[in-house]
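Example: LysR family transcriptional regulator.
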Amino acid sequence: MSRERDGGAGAERGTATGGGAGGRRTAAAALAAAGGGAGTGAGPGPGAWEPATAHLSHRVPDLGALELLLAVARHGSLGAAAREVGITQPAASSRIRSMERQLGVALVDRSPRGSRLTDAGALVTDWARRIVESAEAFDAGVQALRGRRDSRLRVVASMTIAEYLLPGWLIALRAERPDTAVSLQAGNSAVVAERLLAGEADLGFVEGLAVPDGLDGTVVAHDRLVVVTAPSHPWARRRTPIDPAELAATPLVLRERGSGTRQVLDAALAGHGGLARPLLELASTTAVKAAAVTGAGPAVLSELAIAEELSGRRLVAVPVAGVRLSRDLRAVWPTGHRPTGPARDLLALTRARPGG
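Written out as structure tokens, the predicted fold is:
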């Protein structure tokens, strides 16, 4: 079943080399990624991958410690090495001692004239250099992959959101991510779910009663459906609200089945005899609105879509009593795959600018 979640949390960011005390990745993991052995330069033999990683991970220093050792070799000074990696000299001295205990060999001779690598330290430094270089290559490759992913954003949205809310959100996103190419597909809520589940979109927006199966989502805005007619229709001159039974029995100009608007209207009138056969059934909000303006018949539309027509008296809102025609607008994504990169940023913008 689908679940509704908060999609705005930021993802953790980090670098492969993790300088200073903040480095958490092990050198063994970096070496395994590079496919080499620390001592001989040979790659792991058949079946050796998992045992090598398991045996090395508990006794090989992390990348931050190896970077510190390389800095000591470059500067010949523990204080200068500490400044390069951004930690205090006592912290650097403690880290070197910890690394010596971990490896079981002395790495640095300390004297008033500076710090000098021991013979074992020089050998360990040579191995460390290869590991750190491999980790930097790994980090550069991952950043390239992330950059390629972040250079595009595929959005799919139901009609009302696509036409009346997303343009404002996407303009704001472009100001933050000018290099991200955005493609927008519009369809009803059923189409949004299909494209997300098929991997054809990164983020979706729907207008229905609930999050579709297979998706997670979060509410980003609220909307209300309004019954409207042309000024010439008899309902435009009514002094009392339409009751639900009369609305249900009247042929209306409607969106197609599968649209969020139709889902909300079907559910609201299900206890009042259900909707009559539609006068017209159209596949876009714009088409429904145009039909209503020309006097084809009463229609039910999002109030987001009709503000201009109501202010210009091309359409008249007809009050309805005894039925709830409000709905939540949601951002959705495949279950278990929280939005990342540009999709996460767009989701954050919908909260900052809920009205578009």
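The CA atoms of residues 157 and 205 lie 5 Å apart.
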